[in-house]
Design a protein that fits this description.
The chain is an alpha/beta fold and 501 residues long. The chain is 42% helix and 15% strand. It has two domains: 268 residues, 3-Layer(aba) Sandwich (Rossmann fold); 189 residues, Glycogen Phosphorylase B (Rossmann fold), CATH 3.40.50.2000. Helix 4 packs across helix 5, helix 11 packs parallel to helix 12 and helix 11 crosses helix 16. The two termini are 24 Å apart.
């Protein structure tokens, strides 16, 4: 089986969140364990290509394309130096992609023409699928940015090669919405543009478009799959979601990247047998590196994430503020974020520079050290389709503090509720007070029985959250979906297929 994997991110070169890590790990695991060949298709970001010193070669020129009044001559490049992994194809169109960031500008503000960029990418992605000669059996589209590609591919089903179409809804917090008057300028297939206009209730979005076109959908956990149905119940997307078979599959941790035993990443590599000594050595190194007070008994909270509403960043900062102000804890944050959260964090750093540190740009070397040196990883998320940070934390024996949402509910068991099998501390509700109360529980855990703490850390480190486990479930989904599309009468999306054929 050959799959075209549509994504905007690919770690370590072009990444802002978990999608980049998934794009690197899942296709590789599917090829390694199940013989499913993947071609990755994503934008060519000129500034990032130059900064990373990447080498590419042009392989195909696609037709000149106009979207939103902007005409570009797209050229597909192959990324060189990928070894035995999936081939990576980069869509070069500097009119759209020669910018400072992937989704946002330097002030972390989303580009105003995001819908047009995604519509251009989608049309080009579909044209690559048709013209590359690679006979794709399945197209795996990630998030709303792939919605236009799925619509173009579905609209021509029966007239050209017809791969199965799978939509991964990484987060329904992001729809790719745009004003209705822009719909006619996106170059979408006429049938789908009309259907979207009819069903969008004045709120057209490319996620909605992808749902209308896809044969099935997947998301980051069984818990989030259930939440999606409830969260979208009163939105224009509800009907489209109801026609799709939605499968929740928990993502994995790339052990080739997040490995506490690897030399040259953290200051003191360790495994589950040496977790106590390793955590203390790395904590000391982290405190020294960042200019924090060196105190191995001081609870250290480490966070590698974007500072945004859905991550509960306001709850995180307000909940930990009393402990930081009293000199009872330290906090290290690695990652970009919205202005108001960066300002709030800057105020904490100013008030206690020996206890709080913020690195606003993601730094892989620092992230390794944070996971290895932190005692706890707080994640008071409001929305968390899967969550990778809690899985990475557990791989390093770092105890997660999580709200019971989405994939966090599926992967973290509260220690108080189940002392023998618990894997973290669950934050009871989405309030700063609940975060503070859970942090107090964490402090008591750290100051308590050392044998119990070591046993817990070893339990965290020996769990299987590998991408091989994720790939097994995904391969079964791919196989079943491709077979169903070869038998069109068995598709769940019969209503719209009849209109689009």
């Amino acid at each position: 089986m050959r799959c075209l994997y549509l994504t905007q991110e690919l770690a370590p070169h072009f990444t802002e969140g978990g999608l980049g890590q998934a794009s690197r790990a899942l296709p590789a695991a599917l090829h390694r364990g199940h013989g499913i060949v993947h071609d990755l298709f994503l934008p060519y970001y000129p500034r990032l290509v130059r900064e990373r010193g990447l080498r590419t070669e042009p392989v195909s020129e696609l037709p000149s394309t106009t979207v939103g009044g902007v005409t570009a001559q797209p050229v597909v490049h192959r990324l060189l130096g990928t070894g035995d992994g999936p081939e990576v194809f980069l869509l070069r169109a500097d009119e759209w992609y020669d910018r400072e960031g992937i989704y946002r500008d330097g002030r972390y503000v989303e580009f105003t023409d995001a819908a047009e960029r995604a519509a251009f990418y989608g049309l080009c992605g579909a044209r690559w699928a048709w013209s590359s000669g690679r006979a794709y059996d399945l197209v795996h589209g990630n998030d709303w940015q792939s919605g236009a590609a799925l619509a173009h591919l579905r609209a021509r089903r029966g007239t050209v090669a017809s791969p199965a179409l799978l939509l991964n809804i990484h987060s329904a917090h992001y729809w790719g919405e745009f004003e209705p008057e822009r719909l006619s300028h996106l170059g979408l297939p006429e049938t789908y543009a009309e259907e979207l206009a009819l069903r969008c209730a004045g709120r057209p979005s490319l996620l909605h478009l992808g749902m209308l076109a896809a044969d099935a959908a997947t998301t980051g956990s069984p818990g989030y799959a259930r939440e999606l149905t409830d969260d979208l119940a009163c939105t224009p997307l509800a009907e489209a979601l109801g026609t799709l078979e939605l499968t929740g599959i928990v993502a994995g941790v790339d052990a080739g990247v997040w490995d506490p035993t690897a030399r040259g990443r953290s200051s003191a590599p360790y495994d589950s047998a040496s977790v106590e000594e390793g955590k203390r050595a790395n904590k000391r190194a982290l405190q020294r590196r960042l200019g924090l007070t060196v105190d191995l008994d001081m609870p250290l909270f480490g966070v590698c994430t974007r500072l945004v509403d859905e991550k509960g960043s306001d709850l995180l900062l307000e909940g930990l503020r009393p402990l930081l102000a009293a000199g009872r804890a330290q906090l290290v944050v690695v990652g970009p974020g919205d202005d108001r959260y960066r300002a709030a964090l800057a105020a904490l750093v100013t008030a206690a520079p020996d206890a709080v540190h913020h690195s606003p740009a993601f730094d892989q070397d620092l992230a390794w050290q944070v996971y290895a040196g932190a005692d706890f990883s707080p994640m008071p998320s409001r929305v968390e389709p899967c969550g990778l940070n809690q899985l990475i934390s557990m791989a390093y024996g770092t105890i997660p503090l999580t709200t019971p949402v989405g994939g966090l509910r599926d992967t973290v068991t509260d220690l108080t509720a189940d002392p023998r099998r618990g894997t973290g501390l669950v934050i009871a509700e989405h309030t700063a007070r609940a975060v503070q109360d859970t942090a107090e529980r964490a402090l008591r855990l750290l100051a308590g029985d050392r044998g119990h703490l070591i046993s817990l850390r070893r339990r965290l480190m020996t769990q299987d959250w590998s991408w091989d486990r994720t790939a097994r479930a995904t391969a079964a989904l791919y196989t079943g979906l491709a077979a169903a599309v070869r038998r069109p009468r068995q598709l769940l999306t019969v209503h719209f297929e009849e209109q689009a054929s």
